[in-house]
Amino acid sequence: AQKITQTQPGMFVQEKEAVTLDCTYDTSDQSYGLFWYKQPSSGEMIFLIYQGSYDEQNATEGRYSLNFQKARKSANLVISASQLGDSAMYFCAMREGMGDRGSTLGRLYFGRGTQLTVWP
Amino acid sequence: DTGVSQNPRHKITKRGQNVTFRCDPISEHNRLYWYRQTLGQGPEFLTYFQNEAQLEKSRLLSDRFSAERPKGSFSTLEIQRTEQGDSAMYLCASSSPGRAALSMAQYFGPGTRLLVL
Question: What is the pLDDT of residue B75?
C-alpha cells in the first residue's frame, strides 16, 4: 500500500486566490511527522511546513498552512494568496517513528506530487 | 549560511561504467540521506547516515550501489556497472537532531542528474 497518496496530478489557481493540495497517508505508527516540499523546475526540494502527529494545532508558516485531520489521515496543504512564483511541483512526505527522543528511522516516504500552476 | 551541495550536478556515462557522486551536508547537521527521483515520481529513499554510521538502507540499494560517510561529514554514493535504469536524479539531504520542528526537516541539495547511455 502507498504510504502517501496525492490524487491531484495537476492543479490550477489564479494569482491571489487560495488553493488546497490534497494528501492522505497510511501508517500504523502513533507517532509520525508530515512534511510538505516544493520542487521548482530547477529541481531542488524546498521544505515548506511540518506537522507532528501529536500536534493539536494545525501548522502554519507564512502563506502555508496544513489542514491536519488525523482521523481521516489527511494532511492537506493550503496556500493562501497564491503568487506566480508558487508554480512548482509539491510533494507530501511522511516520516514514521517520531518518538520523544526524535526519529530513529531516517527515511521520508514521498507521494507522487501535484503540479501547481498559478496563472495571472 | 550554506546549504547542502552536491557534485557533479550532471553526469553522462556509458552503460557499464562506474560513477561517484559527492554530497556535502549543512555543516552542523549530523544526519545525511540519499534519495533517487525518476521522472514523474517523488523521491525514493536509498540510505541514511547518522555521523559515520549507515543506519538504514533501502532494498533499492542493490549490490552495485555503495554509500560512505567516512568522517561523518561529506558522503559519496558510488554506482558500479551502471545500467540505463539507473538514470535518475540523485538527491542528498541532511538534518540535525533535536526536538524543534524545523530540525526534524530534511534539507535537500540541488541533486545530481545521471544519464546512462
Answer: 97
Per-residue pLDDT reduced to its tens digit, B33-72: 999 999 989 999 999 998 999 988 888 888 999 999 998 8
Give me the amino acid identity at A84.
Answer: L
Residue at grid coordinates 489527511: A74
Cβ-Cβ contacts under 8 Å for A57 (sequence gap 6 or more):
none
β strands within chain A, DSSP E: 4-5, 10-14, 19-21, 24-25, 32-39, 46-52, 60-61, 64-69, 74-79, 88-96, 98-99, 102-103, 109-110, 114-119
Q: Write the CB contacts of A12 (distance below 8 Å, at least 6 apart in sequence).
A: A116, A117, A118, A119
Q: Which residue in chain A has the smallest CA separation from B31?
A: A106
| Closest Cβ–Cβ partner in A47, A91, A107 for B45 | A107
A70 touches chain B (CB under 8 A): no
Q: Give the whole-angstrom CA distance, residue B96 versus residue B117.
A: 37
Residue window 23-42, chain A: list those with CB within 8 Å of chain B.
33, 35, 37, 42
- Specify the range with the lowest mean pLDDT, choosing from A54-68, B25-39, B61-75, B89-103: B89-103
Position of cell 561523518? B72
Q: How confident is the model at residue A98 (pLDDT cuts 50, 70, 90)?
A: low
Cell 517523488 sits on residue: B42
Confirm or reject contact between A52 and chain B (CB < 8 A): yes
Tell me if A42 sits within 8 A of B110, measured CB to CB.
Answer: yes
Mean pLDDT of B111-115: 97
